[in-house]
Amino acid sequence: MRPPKVRLLGPLKPNQVVPPRGQKKVYLPNFTLTFLRTPFAAPNYATFITPLNLNKFDIKDYLYHLYGVEVLSVRSYVQQAKVRRGKPGDRIPKAGFFRPRATKRMTVEMPATSPFVWPEAPTDFSPWDQEAQRKAEASQKREKKLTGDEGRYMPKPGAEELRKQAEELLAGKSTWRPGWADWGVAGRVAERGDVGAQVGM
Fold first, then answer.
1. Nearest C-alpha neighbor of 74 from the set 87, 65, 84, 64
2. For 124, what's the count of Cα atoms within 13 Å in the CB-facing half-sphere?
3. Which of 134, 153, 164, 169 has fewest C-beta within 10 Å?
């Protein structure tokens, strides 16, 4: 039996030990990354909420091609959601207990020479019209409350005014007139002999 040949390996070149970076071209990303504010972390660390199918190489190439950010390392973990029970008001009703979809977070390390510092949180929200958004949210909550199960036991808008008008009619303090009488069409309706005018009383 012939002895096995021994192949001597030469010294590795520096470019052979560097991991590949930026080789996956990104044209039109079909996913969304959420950049989280992490004031407790160092300036050269950034945390994102990513899709579950995004891996470390994808986020490296994404940041490198779109923003020119070089990433040294990536740490990721999947956070499982708590088990909850379906409710009738859920957008997608589910019976019994179920676990919502998990979320994936990735923390990237950037070079210390190019840190990212979050700007100060704004105190004046007038450029974003926050007051109008608050009024719209309050109106949506009020409409949802009126149209829900609680709304059937709550007085409808204008119910108090209608009650007062009914009491005045029953007491003889006012007389009822059809609505079209105030539109200037009472004479024309009466000339045509419309059923509404005859019943009109």
1. 64
2. 2
3. 153
Q: What is the pLDDT of residue 9?
A: 47
Helices first, then strands: H and E counts in the chain: 6, 6
Q: How far apart are CA 130 and CA 126, in angstroms?
A: 6
Give CA–CA dist 173/54, Å, rounded. Answer: 74
pLDDT score for 85: 79
Q: How far apart are the first and last CA of the chain?
A: 121
Cα distance between residue 160 and residue 173, in whole Å: 17
- Give me the pLDDT at residue 36, please: 92
In the chain, what are the helix, strand and coil shares in percent, each to the nearest 5?
35, 15, 50
Q: How much is the pTM?
A: 0.52
Residues in the chain with pLDDT values less than 50: 9, 12, 14-17, 195-201
| Residue appearing with tokens 């899709």 | 51
pLDDT tens, 90-113? 666 666 788 888 999 999 999 888
Residues 6+ apart with CB under 8 A from 55: none
Q: Which of 27, 190, 44 is nearest to 111 (CA)?
A: 44
Cβ(89)–Cβ(150) below 8 Å: no
Amino acid at 38: T
Q: What is the predicted pLDDT for the residue at 40? A: 86
H/E segment holding residue 97: strand 97-98
Per-residue model confidence (pLDDT) at position 106: 95
